[in-house]
Amino acid sequence: MLLSPGELEERLRGIGARRYHRLHPFHHLLHGGKCTKGQVQAWALNRYYYQAMIPIKDASLIARCEDSAVRREWRSRLIDHDGTADGEGGIARWLRLTDGLGLERDYVVSTRGILPGTRFAVEAYVRFVRERSLLEAIASSLTELFSPAIIGERVEGMLKNYDFVTKETLAYFDKRPPQAKRDSDYALDYVKRHAVTPEGQQAVLAALEFKCDVLWAQLDALHHAYVEPRHVSPGAFVPADQEPT
Amino acid sequence: MLLSPGELEERLRGIGARRYHRLHPFHHLLHGGKCTKGQVQAWALNRYYYQAMIPIKDASLIARCEDSAVRREWRSRLIDHDGTADGEGGIARWLRLTDGLGLERDYVVSTRGILPGTRFAVEAYVRFVRERSLLEAIASSLTELFSPAIIGERVEGMLKNYDFVTKETLAYFDKRPPQAKRDSDYALDYVKRHAVTPEGQQAVLAALEFKCDVLWAQLDALHHAYVEPRHVSPGAFVPADQEPT
After folding, report:
1. ipTM more than 0.90?
2. Mutation site for B-interface testing, chosen from A18, A46, A220 by largest number of B Cβ within 10 Å
3. Which end of chain A, N or C, is less packed with Cβ atoms under 10 Å?
4. B chain contacts of residue A127, beta-carbon cutoff 8 Å
């Protein structure tokens, strides 16, 4: 059954309401001030890999797109993450967060301490964007529809609750909401205009569910390793405040 | 530094001793009789996806191998899993296990109830075999060096502890130890003969670590969803004995 563009948007927003990682218990612990410093370190360390792969994901999308206008629009995402000079852009700002948390920069950038669950989920995302249709690749970015709200909660909660986090180390998040708003407005408009068959619309909905799973699985892995039962995969980061298990 | 073939084997066995999923708490719960029926169902359901992808993984390896003798040898793995007629082979035997546990066969085969963590880990394995060197692809199969021991523990523990498991439903495991022994003897001999540079040997060791991560991450995901904190990803299987969270 073909949905109207408005109905499609409603279904997409419904997926976010049910499956976005804002609902994950780890998010509540993090922004509610219930995490130890070690847990916040583990979150920032693992999430670095996701951040670092975003421009590779976006370049993969550009690389398979035959429409110059879409490529041009999508290019702004590369600029957001890689900046225009050393020390600029979203990845550099994420490293200011890991610096502020006392993690060695070389260790963070090497990604050798991340959980296998993080690596597999992030790689699944990059490959999805490389291998599925352009429509599905664009739809998989639509979690950004829901990110301004989570970022607001995260920044407010973290600043209030953690003395080891400062406004300066959270600079990454200052920039994101307007970028995410602009990007998700574009992507939402794109899928509403291009998902014009029932199959295309189902593929778009499934792509957003997939992406919610990618984010969710990362918090599952963190929760398992660092919250309960605090069972860290062999070789992954062990915070100073967590005994090896 | 170049290792002798014997030293390489020793390093490989050391990785198994430290990182094989036999050490995972979920394995201990499973074979120790500490799982509920719902947890055993969840394990069998998720593990089905791994089983179902094994011949795809093995065909991917054959598809990229230019040596007829290796292809011929590897073909036996396809026969082991797919059988020579309907209802035969490892996948069909795994479905007898899920049948015996009361899971709907269509539901199992659809894989729509598996955890995202399972899907991402298994896909990472298939892609590793497709994309890395043939040497690494072969080395990633070497977890089978360690599987006869885990299978022994699993079958004995499950038959003793669970009245909902029978020797007939565990038929999958009867066949595996000699197959795994034959296959891992071949693969171990192959990597000892072909990993003749320090880089090649490091790649072989890393491939086995990667594969241990693939197995480990699957049990992490199960443990998180069904043991502690029993927090099931949206859309995944919820056993009858587990309240939705």
Report:
1. no
2. A220
3. N
4. 123, 127
